[in-house]
Amino acid sequence: MTIESAFNEHYHDLNVNERQTLSRILTNKRDFSNLTINELAKKALISKSFIIRLCKNIGYSGYSEFKYQLKRELEQADKLLNSQNILEQTKLDLSETMNLIDFDQLAMLCRKMKQAPRIYTYATGYGAKNILEDFKRGMVAAKKAIISFPTSIELKLNNSVMQKDDILFVVSMNGQADTVIKELPFLKEKGIIVVSITRFLVNPLASMSSFNLYLQTTDTNGFYTSYVPLCLLLDLIVKQFLNCEA
């Protein structure tokens, strides 16, 4: 079982600090894979006992076993993503993203989009924000304007003008968009329809959203995240929107 799978399985058994620490490690595997427990504690500003407890809480005997698994996953990823099979991995990511799409849910979402007074978008990360700009272009072609929030500050400032049946798309690969998550209870109470787009893993953003859309993307060497699956998913939303009736 991968560390990410163990995280998903034990997600609700972990406290907030444990979830944040593990998410940080998984997002920066290469930075953490060679650290001793003392180095990890210093780098993450946590105690050794906290690290040991966290490892045990997700099914490992201790930090040594956890570190071994972390290095093993990096080695497997490096072996997988060489120059000969990068194309195959990309095809696999796109195929898995297609498998994750519930087209009945997508059709229902598009009907809601037809009826929505306004549609908003927000993304964590520069790359995802750029992809959403192209999504806006597609929706303009479909005669539906979209308002994008460049930062969580704009989202918070516009809470008061958002109204019932408006739709908010939130893109976050790991679903740990803490600044936005704090606003979701208030938005949902107002009747705002929140649509999350994340990787296929248990995450707080998806658990608090009205619609959950998932994608699969494999990081290259722990540094580069491909947004091709996100482009595919948003493209399908535009096409479904063009073909659905209100």
TrEMBL record:
GO terms for molecular function: carbohydrate derivative binding; DNA binding; DNA-binding transcription factor activity. PROSITE patterns: HTH_RPIR (PS51071). Keywords: DNA-binding, Transcription, Transcription regulation. Gene3D superfamilies: Glucose-6-phosphate isomerase like protein, domain 1, Winged helix-like DNA-binding domain superfamily/Winged helix DNA-binding domain. The keyword Signal does not apply. Residues 1-77 form the HTH rpiR-type domain. One of its GO terms (biological process) is carbohydrate derivative metabolic process. InterPro entries: Homeodomain-like_sf, HTH_RpiR, RpiR-like, RpiR-like_SIS, SIS_dom, SIS_dom_sf, WH-like_DNA-bd_sf. The keyword DNA-binding applies. This is HTH-type transcriptional regulator GlvR. It comes from Xylocopilactobacillus apicola. The lineage of its organism: Bacteria, Bacillati, Bacillota, Bacilli, Lactobacillales.
